[in-house]
């Protein structure tokens, strides 16, 4: 559903989306972030090493982490690599148990060098080691995880995959389930489809966010009855896209606590469909050299004028890598979402439903 393009500059780094369908709705990348205390290092990081990829493919931008807390979440990894483009987080399990290791795919090869600067920094009370890794190691880990989740060994029964948390079966059900391991781009519609054997509405699904509005990879679902939530536990360790999803009995109190820690995703970022369709889309991931003519070429199947394209800049006049596009109608904007994850030059482009209000707010912030 999510990846249709191909990221050339990082030796198919974005290609992993076809296998994992993972993306984080992150803010502007480190290289395009507007200045400010919450978006920049203080002091600024040293310049990346001056090497060139001319004549050879750039390395796959992945690092391996070791020594993670055993309650570590994807949101913790995203915060650990704050200001870097975290595209995927893969936790490593063995025999159904978390090993304390993970792989993290970044947006650009040079971001690996910045990630390595976080070596031996802390997540919680644990210091975390960061190592350079390779594409084959990452893909092998994906294959192992899929095999582990689906019971790859012929002698291994499916319940074995759940044996790490047998208490789930004994937990009291209140009608709520917590989902963990969601793709960061998962929408309420995806969750409804995951639980398609049950009657659910979008109002009963809460996708949680961090304090700065990023998805946590978790959601809470309220079922019609405790019996339904217990029956829905049969979906534990099933896949959504290519990610296996963990399910846990939960409660209204746990949901309220999660909301108090961060909040819920805003409607405009919660999936690809807005409650009230508009004719505005937000583009993210543009090359900094992209102009309005490039955007018109990207949307060449639609009638656009330069006046309907708004490339955003920070207060220093530097491009942010984002733009807002006004289409002739909400129907055109919805049809244009088919271009999501396609490439402009060598960059894949993310598309999000937006609004004139978001456009004006962005302009007022000097973006």
Automatic annotation (TrEMBL):
<feature type="domain" description="RRM">
    <location>
        <begin position="279"/>
        <end position="367"/>
    </location>
</feature>
<dbReference type="InterPro" id="IPR050666">
    <property type="entry name" value="ESRP"/>
</dbReference>
<dbReference type="InterPro" id="IPR012677">
    <property type="entry name" value="Nucleotide-bd_a/b_plait_sf"/>
</dbReference>
<protein>
    <recommendedName>
        <fullName>RRM domain-containing protein</fullName>
    </recommendedName>
</protein>
<feature type="domain" description="RRM">
    <location>
        <begin position="175"/>
        <end position="252"/>
    </location>
</feature>
<dbReference type="Pfam" id="PF00076">
    <property type="entry name" value="RRM_1"/>
</dbReference>
<dbReference type="InterPro" id="IPR000504">
    <property type="entry name" value="RRM_dom"/>
</dbReference>
<keyword id="KW-0694">RNA-binding</keyword>
<keyword id="KW-0677">Repeat</keyword>
<dbReference type="InterPro" id="IPR035979">
    <property type="entry name" value="RBD_domain_sf"/>
</dbReference>
């Amino acid at each position: 559903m999510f990846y249709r393009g191909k990221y050339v500059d990082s030796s198919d780094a974005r290609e992993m989306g076809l296998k994992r369908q993972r993306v984080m709705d992150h803010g502007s990348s480190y290289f395009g972030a507007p200045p400010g205390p919450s978006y920049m290092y203080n002091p600024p990081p040293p310049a990346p090493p001056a090497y060139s990829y001319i004549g050879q493919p750039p390395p796959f931008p992945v690092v391996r982490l070791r020594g993670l807390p055993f309650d570590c979440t994807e949101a913790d990894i995203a915060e650990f690599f704050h200001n870097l483009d975290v595209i995927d987080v893969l936790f490593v399990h063995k025999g159904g148990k978390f090993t304390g290791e993970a792989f993290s795919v970044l947006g650009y090869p040079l971001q690996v060098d910045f990630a390595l600067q976080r070596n031996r920094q802390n997540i919680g009370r644990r210091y975390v080691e960061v190592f350079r890794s390779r594409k084959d190691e990452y893909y092998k880990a994906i294959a192992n995880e899929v095999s582990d989740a689906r019971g790859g060994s012929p002698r291994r029964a499916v319940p074995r995959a759940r044996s790490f948390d047998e208490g789930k079966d004994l937990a009291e059900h209140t009608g709520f389930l917590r989902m963990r391991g969601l793709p960061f781009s998962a929408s309420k519609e995806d969750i409804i489809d995951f639980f398609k054997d049950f009657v659910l509405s979008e109002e009963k699904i809460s996708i949680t966010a961090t304090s700065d509005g990023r998805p946590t990879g978790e959601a809470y679902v309220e079922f019609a009855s405790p019996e339904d939530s217990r029956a829905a536990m049969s979906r534990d360790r099933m896949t959504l896209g290519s990610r296996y999803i963990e399910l846990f009995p939960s409660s209204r109190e746990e949901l309220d606590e999660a909301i108090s820690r961060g909040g819920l995703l805003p409607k405009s970022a919660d999936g690809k469909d807005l409650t009230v369709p508009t004719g505005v889309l937000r583009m993210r991931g543009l090359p900094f050299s992209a102009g309005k003519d490039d955007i018109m070429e990207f949307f060449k199947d639609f009638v656009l004028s330069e006046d309907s394209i708004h490339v955003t800049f920070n207060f220093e006049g530097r491009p942010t890598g984002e733009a807002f596009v006004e289409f002739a109608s909400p129907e055109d904007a919805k049809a244009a979402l088919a271009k999501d994850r396609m490439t402009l030059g060598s960059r894949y482009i993310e598309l999000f439903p937006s609004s004139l209000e978001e456009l004006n707010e962005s302009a007022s912030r000097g973006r």
